[in-house]
Amino acid sequence: MASLQDIGASAFINLLSALAFLLAFAFLRLQPFNDRVYFPKWYKKGIRSSPRKSTHSVKRFINVDCMSYLKFWAWMPAALRMPEPELIEHAGLDSAIYIRIYLLGLKIFFPIAVLAFAVLVPVNWTGGTLARAKDITFSDIDKLSISNVPPKSIRFVAHIVMAYVFTFWTFYVLHNEYKIVTNKRLQFLASESRKPNQFTVLVRNVPADPDESVSQHVDHFFFVNHSDHYLMHQLVYNANKLAKLVEKKKSLQNWRTYYQTRYERDPKRKPKTKTGCCGLWGKTVDAIDYYTDEIEKISKEEAEEREKVINDPKSIIPAAFVSFRTRWGAAVCAQTQQTSNPTVWLTEWAPEPRDVYWDNLAISYVELAVKRLLIAVATFFLTFFFMIPIAFVQSLASVEGIERVFPFLKPLIEARKVKAVVQGFLPGIVLKIFLIFLPTILMTMSKVEGFTALSLLDRRAAGKYHLFVLVNIFLGSVLTGAAFEQLQKFLNQAPSEIPKTVGVAIPLKATFFITYIMVDGWAGVAAEVLRLVPLVLFHLKNTFLVKTELDREQAMEPGSINFAAYEPRLQLYFLLGFVYSVVTPLILPFILVFFAFGYVIFRHQIINVYDQTYESGAAFWPDVLRRIIIGMIISQLLLLGLLSTKGAAQSTPLLIVLPILTIWFHIFLKGRFESAFVKYPLQDAVVKDTLERATEPYLDLKAYLKDTYLHPVFDSSDGQNSSTVDEEDGVLVSTKRSSRKSSRHSSAAITSENELLA
């Protein structure tokens, strides 16, 4: 069990690490040759130019202005200076709302921390139970927790009252924040400039028709059923193989550029490579000639595949991006069922063109259901069985575990300073390292599920990661014993006993979570601003691959907010804050430091670095609030279980009210605000359409939307023209069906009948 000295050692190490990262960042960001690494967003916007254009040779690489080094801290107030409306315009609503999550943590936990230290810490400290107990190992931290309160004590009234106060305060903050974010989303959508996705709907599961091609069938269906608003459609091609060839060609071109650069620097030595995998084995050949030949070969393959995709009807996916003359028409189509058969003509709002995940557009309705079922099962097994290696690694990250596996290190580990480091720092860093690859695994699983937008993939992967955080990082770290023993204990006890089992272990693990917060939340966040990996990659590319300014622009890696990994991590801090606010309030200052530090760091990154790959209008916010509510309910149930073991059974009726109130509050928030995040108001659509017609009466919307949803491997020169309907056509619909040439209504009736029989 970590003592106060161990916590102090961990705090010293992590503060020193965080300070080292910040000082390194403060120095590196001032150097001209790093300017594109630490300010790529401004380069992308064309606002910032390279300071290396200076005529002075030294100034091109090194900042010689000594006064600038004295202001190394100036980036922090600069990050806080930009007003939120300007931040939204600069970085988008997704980025602005994401950093509000950190602000939300400060709003919730700062007043809670003040009350907890004013009321609960004195109550716990004067309990005196641990001092009178025999054969119990405890630290000074435990004296500040609920463990120091004697069983059946009247002092538990303070904890119950504070639990209610904390809950209602959180309700108040969450309601206000949900209201603010909802208003910001509606304002953002109302003021947003014209974009293709405002007029476009993604249609999937277009039913096969023996008489018509997919293009003709889509054209026919929407001209009949949305005749007043249908404008055009763009087919979706299965160009996944072509995309892989394009990526492979790009990689080969990078290798050729690398060897050409080497040869230009040293013309006396012509570079060589081997023809085997990754150049590790095989015949030794001239590198430049080899990659030139390979590029020619793959260029031929690419041209053949491109021609095949364009001309082969089998390459056309039964899906299309359908555009309308008005936002109102798109909103009606996206938010309604098109036919009596709910498995065909599935419509949803089209993502932004940059948000589309093209690989999943070809998945059928049945295949989609099967894949999601399989991934749900896989997620369950991954989440619960991943606890086994985590428990094993965590057992080795302790003094007893190391002495058991490496007994010869016992004299060294038992030294006072070494033991403090091991107990206060090692468990947190081991868990952090062990989870490095988990977000990538979960994102891959989400892609298999068939979602068609990158934003949806992020949200689904975040949901899986959140479940993993709850089960493995929180419960797995709280419960003691081997993983199989934990599983057996859960299976063999009544569900009502689980809160007691976990609740008893909660106070004992406060020190572990404090060390984890310092490793992940202090040093980890500070490392984010240093951008060590993008820094190294940029200079490697700049040295070996860059020949032109365009190459240098492409070498920049601004990155983006990794919502799938970052948001679940934030939820862990909310959960720890709710759980320990009543049990061990000492953890709250560490959580507050994380939220404050993270707010400053990520605000700076959003302003200067990150370039988001999509903009969803903060569609993720209901997920964030739902997970916070889940954290509240878990903390309330665990407090109920803990107090029941303390002889305070009479408190059960009082505490059982809290999760019931919290569930009701979530239902209230969902009904009051969530519709703004899943539906688009028709009234707002009409307003925007009316204003646009008044201000731009001669807008050629068809030209504006042309090729906006064409697969990225194509361009306008490929001859891919969208299928459109001539605006001057009459009521008759062009069709190859000999029996369906009467009228719009008869055609619609026959179409519906055909789909019902399908």
Helix and strand topology:
Layout: H1 4-28, H2 35-38, H3 40-44, H4 66-70, H5 75-81, H6 84-91, H7 93-125, H8 129-132, H9 156-191, E1 200-204, H10 214-225, E2 230-237, H11 240-265, E3 272-274, E4 284-286, H12 287-311, E5 316-324, H13 327-334, E6 346-349, H14 365-385, H15 387-396, H16 399-405, H17 410-413, H18 416-434, H19 438-448, H20 454-478, H21 483-491, H22 498-505, H23 510-530, H24 532-544, H25 549-555, H26 563-583, H27 588-608, H28 621-644, H29 652-673, H30 675-678, H31 682-695, H32 701-705, E7 723-724, H33 744-757
Helix pairs in contact: 1-18, 1-23, 5-27, 6-7, 7-9, 7-26, 7-27, 9-26, 9-28, 9-29, 11-12, 13-31, 14-19, 15-20, 18-23, 19-20, 20-26, 22-28, 23-27, 26-28, 28-29
Quick recap of the structure?
The chain has 33 helices and seven strands.
Question: How would you characterize this protein structure?
Answer:
The protein is mainly α and 758 residues long. The protein is built from 33 helices and seven strands. The chain has helices at residues 4-28, 35-38, 40-44, 66-70, 75-81, 84-91, 93-125, 129-132, 156-191, 214-225, 240-265, 287-311, 327-334, 365-385, 387-396, 399-405, 410-413, 416-434, 438-448, 454-478, 483-491, 498-505, 510-530, 532-544, 549-555, 563-583, 588-608, 621-644, 652-673, 675-678, 682-695, 701-705, 744-757; strands at 200-204, 230-237, 272-274, 284-286, 316-324, 346-349, 723-724. The strands form two sheets. Strands 6-1-5-2-7 form a five-stranded antiparallel sheet. Strands 3-4 form a two-stranded antiparallel sheet. Helix 9 packs antiparallel against helix 26 (563-583), helix 11 (240-265) packs antiparallel against helix 12 and helix 22 packs across helix 28. The longest helix is centred in the first third of the chain and has 36 residues, at 156-191.
